[in-house]
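Figure 3 (text version): structure tokens given as input.
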């Protein structure tokens, strides 16, 4: 917003400082031009006039000129459609309902104007295409040149016409004053400008700048048809850069707020007092009691290290929003906010859920009244105490606030109704970070350790005796308590409990991104190989040797990297026990894989390399021998399982037996695949089986991840590992 307005009648800037009447009969001081439009969010974007004209040219140019059209390929259509869709979305038209109701989770986002970012990107790309078409059509006749001439003329005429119209309106202001008055009222500009004349003066400057920019844009387009150059650069290119820079600078240099940076070093006294309380003892949370001045605005406490139950975020959990809604109405949810307690709802200050939230202090811009009509009695009866008073801010202490962590005796999870505050057992916060919280608990009997932090999928808990090393930890299940918080069961004694946030969804996302990146790298390697190496390698024997050695080595390392990354997420989902069962099954598979293939690959490669005419015969005979050995191995496998279960404890369960069976079935296609690999080596085409193995590795880990996410465990993981070319031993 601006703090001055331009008066075209006196040709001077006037400070904006006036008193606006309010609904209650008073007045409010107005010192800026803000009148309710969202000009301080992401939707308040300005692209400039020339980029919009160039974007239009980018869409139109080449439509009747095949050569120019082919240069941009399908991109102008793609980006044009994206710009159109973004416009529909960012203005909140009914088209946004397709996203809002059609895609899960989007109804949490109430900010369609952020599609202005997508629109900005699309316009920039189209403007680049338009600038390119100007360069390529220079000095040539055609439709593009015709559109440039029309655009130049239209821009110049519009700019000159607007400028003349402004001068005419200034001279005849008394005649247009009623129209200006209607605009002043209809646009809600009465909230920023004391009268229609001031509003006219403010917009007169903006319209005058627009007229000048239109003339400048017309001049740039006119220059683009001239052969004038300076040091190899067309004159219109330099003019375009200067005009765009000037346009954006004039639009924003005095619009964005400017503040003294020393304010960043200033800490308000009330905040400093709360910081001192935080340093002195256990962590606590704060809440605001708002009389209209929004004390310590939501998220502002983060800057000072204060923990607030309020928040401003597009992605807070529904669970937490519902929990806070039980304390007080959350009207700010439509604006992605968890609200303070409003002045007309003082009874919410006594809600026991605030005690569970560890809210120790209330900040208010006025008072917590004790009169009977508010239902609070006096402060002592409400277990509240006024502890500090600063200029415009008072801080009250909630004497009923529970600590951040505590123990509740009993075998069943406590509820708000059954919680006995007199029987709580002590627990202290040893370390507190975003992803990890470490607690020390001293229980004189079995019970539940409650941590007053929001529960969410992905939180894990590890327990060890106090003073014991971390390798003594055992994992326990995290339970949700009081509808929002985390709790774990503990026996009597002294314990150290570590809560860690490790969501599977994040790890899956990282792995999916990794696989996508590896796929791109693989395709790039294939292109590089076919373009630069494959044909040249046939020219002499030395290059063929290098080719048949290099490709398998590189792709084998590539496959190992994928398997290594997959092992992380597999271990996270299966856990130590499940992973142990899977790797035990792989060891058993490895025995029989060696049995069915021992020496046959070498035989096949050697004999076929000597005489390629016997390739089919050797492939057929070795494959039949492999399958026969696999069949003979079945009774051996059954005998091993029976002997092992009779002599070793614990016995193999159904999961392990199913995994071994699936992997053994994979011997059949895997043996054929191994024989074909040996055949390719004999024909000096080692890159083909190596590439196929990489493809199968990508497929194996992708299918394996899907099986794990579906909850199929070890058995589901063994199925894709037994597919052709996807050896679990690889």
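Below: residues designed for each position.
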């Amino acid at each position: 917003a601006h703090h001055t307005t331009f008066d075209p009648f006196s040709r001077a800037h006037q400070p904006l400082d006036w008193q606006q009447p309010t609904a209650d009969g008073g007045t409010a001081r107005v010192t800026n031009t803000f009148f309710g439009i969202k000009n301080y969010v992401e939707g308040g974007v300005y692209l400039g006039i020339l980029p919009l004209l160039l974007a239009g040219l980018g869409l139109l140019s080449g439509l009747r000129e095949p050569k120019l059209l082919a240069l941009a390929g399908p991109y102008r259509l793609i980006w044009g459609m994206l710009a159109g869709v973004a416009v529909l979305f960012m203005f909140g038209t009914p088209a946004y309902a397709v996203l809002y109701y059609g895609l899960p989770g989007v109804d949490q986002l109430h900010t369609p104007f952020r599609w202005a970012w997508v629109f900005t990107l699309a316009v920039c790309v189209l403007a680049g295409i338009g600038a390119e078409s100007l360069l390529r059509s220079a000095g040539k006749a055609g439709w593009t040149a015709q559109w440039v001439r029309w655009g130049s003329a239209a821009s110049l005429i519009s700019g000159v016409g607007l400028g003349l119209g402004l001068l005419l309106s200034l001279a005849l202001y008394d005649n247009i004053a009623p129209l200006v008055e209607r605009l002043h009222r209809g646009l809600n500009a009465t909230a920023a400008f004391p009268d229609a004349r001031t509003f006219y003066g403010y917009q007169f400057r903006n319209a005058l700048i627009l007229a000048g920019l239109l003339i400048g844009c017309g001049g740039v387009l006119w220059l683009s048809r001239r052969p004038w150059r300076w040091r190899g650069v067309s004159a219109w290119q330099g003019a375009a850069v200067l005009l765009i820079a000037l346009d954006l600078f004039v639009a924003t240099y005095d619009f964005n707020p400017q503040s003294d940076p020393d304010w960043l070093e200033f800490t308000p006294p009330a905040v400093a007092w709360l910081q001192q309380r935080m340093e002195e003892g256990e962590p606590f949370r704060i809440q605001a009691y708002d009389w209209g001045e929004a004390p310590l605005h939501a998220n502002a406490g983060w800057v000072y290290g204060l923990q607030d139950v309020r928040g401003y975020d597009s992605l807070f959990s529904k669970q937490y929003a519902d929990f806070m809604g039980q304390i007080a109405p959350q009207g700010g949810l439509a604006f992605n906010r968890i609200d303070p307690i409003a002045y007309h709802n003082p009874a919410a200050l006594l809600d026991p859920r605030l005690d569970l939230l560890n809210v120790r202090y209330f900040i208010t811009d006025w008072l917590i009244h004790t009169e009977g009509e508010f239902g609070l009695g006096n402060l002592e009866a409400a277990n509240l105490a006024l502890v500090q008073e600063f200029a415009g801010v008072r801080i009250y202490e909630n004497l009923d606030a529970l600590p951040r962590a505590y123990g509740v005796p009993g075998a069943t999870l406590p509820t708000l109704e059954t919680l006995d505050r007199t029987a709580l057992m002590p627990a202290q916060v040893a370390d507190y970070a975003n992803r990890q919280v470490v607690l020390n608990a001293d229980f004189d009997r079995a019970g539940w350790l409650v941590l007053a932090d929001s529960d969410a999928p992905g939180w894990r808990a590890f327990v060890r005796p106090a003073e014991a090393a971390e390798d003594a930890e055992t994992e326990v299940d995290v339970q949700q308590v009081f509808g929002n918080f985390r709790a774990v069961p503990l026996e009597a004694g002294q314990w150290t409990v570590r809560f860690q946030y490790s969501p599977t969804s994040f790890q899956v996302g990282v792995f999916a991104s990794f696989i996508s990146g590896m796929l791109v790298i693989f395709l790039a390697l294939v292109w590089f190989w076919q373009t630069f190496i494959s044909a040249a390698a046939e020219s002499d024997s030395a290059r063929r040797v290098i080719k048949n050695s290099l490709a398998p080595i590189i792709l084998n390392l590539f496959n190992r990297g994928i398997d290594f990354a997959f092992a992380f997420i597999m271990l996270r989902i299966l856990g130590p026990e499940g992973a142990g069962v899977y790797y035990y099954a792989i060891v058993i598979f490895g025995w029989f894989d060696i049995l069915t293939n021992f020496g046959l690959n070498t035989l096949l490669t050697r004999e076929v390399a000597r005489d390629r005419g016997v390739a089919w015969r050797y492939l057929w005979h070795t494959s039949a021998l492999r399958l026969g050995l696999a069949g003979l191995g079945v009774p051996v496998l059954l005998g091993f399982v029976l002997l092992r279960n009779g002599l070793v404890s614990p016995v193999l369960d159904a999961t392990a037996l199913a995994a071994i069976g699936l992997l053994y079935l994979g011997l059949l296609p895997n043996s054929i695949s191994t024989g074909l690999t040996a055949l390719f080596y004999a024909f000096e085409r080692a890159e083909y089986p190596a590439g196929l193995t990489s493809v199968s590795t990508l497929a194996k880990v992708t299918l394996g991840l899907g099986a794990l996410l579906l909850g199929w465990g070890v058995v589901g993981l063994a199925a894709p590992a037994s597919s052709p070319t996807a050896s679990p031993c690889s």
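The mean pLDDT is 88.
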